[in-house]
Amino acid sequence: MKKLFSLLAITLFVLTSCSRPAANPEAYLFAYFTGNGPGEEAVHYAISKDGFTYRALNDNQPVISADSISKQGGVRDPHILRGEEGAFYMVLTDLYVPNDGWINQGMVFLKSDDLVHWTHHTVYIPDLFAEQYGDVSRVWAPQTVYDEHEGKYMVYFSMKQGEDPDIIYYAYANDDFSSLETVPKPLFLHPENKSCIDGDIVKKEGKYHLFFKTEGHGNGIKKAVSDRLTGGYVMEDKYLQQTTEAVEGSGIFKLNDSDKYILMYDVYMKGAYQFTESTDLENFSVIDDQVSMNFHPRHGSVLPISLEEARRLETEFGLDPQDWITHANTELIYFKNILLDSEKASLYLPVKEGVDLTQLDPGLEMMVGYEISPSGAQDFSNGAVTYTLTQPDGSVRDYQVSAAMDHNPVLKGYYADPEIIYSNKTGKFHLYPTSDGFDSWSGTFFKTFSSPDLVNWQDDGLIVDLHKDVSWADRNAWAPCAIEKKVDGEYKYFYYFTAAQKIGVAVADDPAGPFTDIGRPLVDFKPSGASGGQEIDPDVFHDPVSGKDFFYWGNGYLAAVPLNDDMVSFDRSKVKLLTPEDGTFREGTEVFYRNGKYYFMWSENDTRDADYRVRYAFADSPMGPLTIPEDNLVIAKDPAKEIYGTGHNSVIQVPGKDEWYIVYHRFTRPHGLKMGSAAGFHREVCIDKLSFDADGNIIPVQATVEGIALSAPIDR
Fold first, then answer.
1. Domain match, 619 and 551 both
2. Contact 82, 19 (CB under 8 A)
3. Strand duo 396-405 + 346-351: pairing
4. From which residue to which does the signal peptide run (predicted)?
5. I need a surface site. Which of 112, 175, 392, 518 has the fewest CB within 10 A?
6. What pTM does this model have?
7. 448 & 473 share domain
8. Quick check: is 178 in a domain?
9. Are 73 and 64 in contact (CB under 8 A)?
10. Domain that holds residue 367
11. Integer angstrom CA distances of residue 386 from 330, 351, 352, 359, 389
């Protein structure tokens, strides 16, 4: 259900205790915009029951027609205030970046009685205050607060004149909230005459705390504190964001019925938001793992609302029927992989290894206004259980809820590009993936996992953090590989990883680390004969015939070279291109040996493509040449199972047996396909059986949800 109202708005993460609270705040309204491109600078709504799990209304489409209310054609940075008399006040930046870049001179004021229908006015600073501010080039991120002393609504925002820095100003709105009735005055000037934007005020224990962004000199969040609303702010000279990335658009709000405050900010270079919490507004800790959104917001605000208001918004704008469940018992269920089919009124719960289906308590939690029964443990061992869902409008519907044990994905959370080894030292399998879930593959660290049986996996923690452990790169931690070697009678582990489109090596005495980077990249050049592509996706292979080790890499090309005995260097003159000639090679090389044949695997298409898949070739040596079988597809999507983007694999042999498995990533299931290109960095790791025919050809793998089941650890 999509509705477009010409007068409506709200923003992402800014809620202030300077706002009059709802009579019975039981939910949250989140207003935001989505980006800088055409049509993205508009107001969107999302709601939450707990302040952590947000679901978009109106299919994440605008709830307000931006070009109908703005002077420049777009609106950004929405902020909503609940007024003293019960009305709602919304202010926005009037700016359309595709046409105007970052130059603007006005704001948009809106007023509503119900958060649905709004009156609006444009407020153009040079028209109102030509003498004082006729030359402004930026009027950004307005917010509203009620000034109890003056009995008026005060609007504060940043402005820039000429070469002067951005300054946060304030002025009072007129009685009908259609314009400003006073000349803007400086509210806060940086003591070092630097720019400040994105002001956000929260009152706590009689003090006014002004959070702001230090624009152009650190790009972080600082705070100034005063005893009075309209001046006297003293800056505390420390950054409050809990990331080294550039941030803006801070929003601070207090959780309902709690002493905790949430400080959120837009990690705008990464297309992400970070959430932190505090009780004293001085010390903040990251809580990103508690937050869930089915949209990608930009600078916005959060407003506490009543259950009645939340239901009204759901009725007006519609909530995706696939989104009424917000949480489940994650100790027992892979929550992000549940399959909800509202058309068929069915719900499938994938449970973890060892769960007793005769007494499973799903622990389902719903969005605002939804209720479900029965509660508590139920017997799912004999088939589906009937649950009754009560919806916000009072209607009821029966759902058939079933549960079964699934082993794919094998890791909880978003991971990709899995590499797997068996360690003779530990007697376990060790899995080394890319840490995924970061916009545009912007992760900066690697983790590792171990298992005695390929089914039950233990998180062994962080092994390489680019910001702390690597001196030559600090971004794009991708696609590792690893190998176990005996050096002077002791086991050593060589871990090859991509960082900043280069390939490095770290070394450890244990497969779970700690790993030490060698201090320089192993690959930071493009091989002779290669054009385009990237220096990424390493693979390392020990040849059981020659006893030598070989190294492979490349995106757009496949490079191969023998490694030196030290495992951290090679002779560049021996680098050879082995790029398959059928035009299907993209990346993700994997090499293994079986029954006299060398197998080369690679991924075809883009990792954001639903048709990302794996192909293979044979060779008579680790350095090729490659022979491509007529039918060389290894694994591909299965739309009937909602499995897409199956690629970038590794292969593992069970020690001592001709038993093989393929480890690969896929789009997160079942939501990946709906995520568009974002599915390419919201991936999950799976394992399925790899089989061969009598001639050694790979039998196409059927990607499964069930995965594999090994009942006992591997014999050593």
1. yes
2. yes
3. parallel
4. 1-22
5. 175
6. 0.77
7. yes
8. yes
9. no
10. 323-405
11. 21, 18, 21, 15, 10
